[in-house]
């Protein structure tokens, strides 16, 4: 197993409060390229969140980790018995147990908002509120 030096993206963001817009764009581009590679290989990750992205604090090199919930596909969406992912990063269709590359892209959008604006737009005041926001796709852009 490969050793990955660094910290998860959430910890990295807490450490690097003064990241430039260019650095943030670089990080987002790298996450998106990793997702592109996954999707071109027919893999839907199903749990895209900052804790599943490792960042080398010196080089900003990133790795997408934890493919334990991933799904190998043939083009198009898949319907699964269990909903997978982390509330607050899950696309609304995941609550109906439908997954596609678009579900991962939705999760990427939440991470992009976190990186650029400093908050998760689905985060509610409680776990239940976050679940309801995620399920409805209610984005809070404040």
Rg over CA atoms:
15 Å
Which parts are unreliable, with pLDDT below 50 for 5 consecutive residues or more?
none
Helix/strand structural class: alpha+beta
Strand content: 5-15%
CATH class: Mainly Alpha
Q: CATH architecture, please?
A: Orthogonal Bundle
Distance between the termini: 41 Å
CATH homology-level superfamily: Transferase(Phosphotransferase) domain 1
Biggest sheet, spatial arrangement of strands: 1-3-4
Q: Please name the CATH topology.
A: Transferase(Phosphotransferase), domain 1
Helix count, per DSSP?
A: 4
Described by the principal axes of the CA atoms, the overall outline is globular
Question: How much helix, percentage-wise, in residues?
Answer: 25-40%
**Strand elements, count:** 7
Features of the shown structure:
142 residues, alpha+beta, Transferase(Phosphotransferase), domain 1, three-stranded antiparallel beta sheet, 4 helices, 7 strands, 11% strand
Give a brief rundown of this model.
With 142 residues, this protein is of the alpha+beta class. It has helices spanning 9-15, 21-40, 101-117, 127-136; strands spanning 7-8, 43-44, 53-55, 62-64, 71-72, 78-79, 98-99. The strands form three sheets. Strands 1-3-4 form a three-stranded antiparallel β-sheet.
């Amino acid at each position: 197993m490969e050793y990955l030096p660094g910290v998860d993206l959430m910890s990295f963001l807490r450490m690097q409060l003064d990241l430039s817009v260019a650095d943030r764009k670089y990080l987002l581009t790298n996450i998106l390229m990793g997702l592109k590679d996954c999707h071109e290989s027919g893999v839907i990750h199903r749990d895209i969140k900052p804790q599943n992205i490792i960042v080398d604090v010196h080089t900003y090199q990133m790795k997408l980790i934890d493919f334990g919930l991933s799904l190998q596909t043939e083009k198009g969406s898949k319907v699964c018995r269990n909903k997978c992912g982390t509330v607050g990063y899950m696309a609304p269709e995941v609550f109906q147990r439908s997954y596609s590359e678009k579900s991962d892209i939705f999760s990427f959008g939440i991470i992009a908002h976190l990186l650029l604006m400093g908050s998760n737009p689905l985060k509610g005041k409680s776990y239940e509120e976050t679940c309801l926001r995620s399920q409805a796709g209610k984005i809070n852009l404040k």
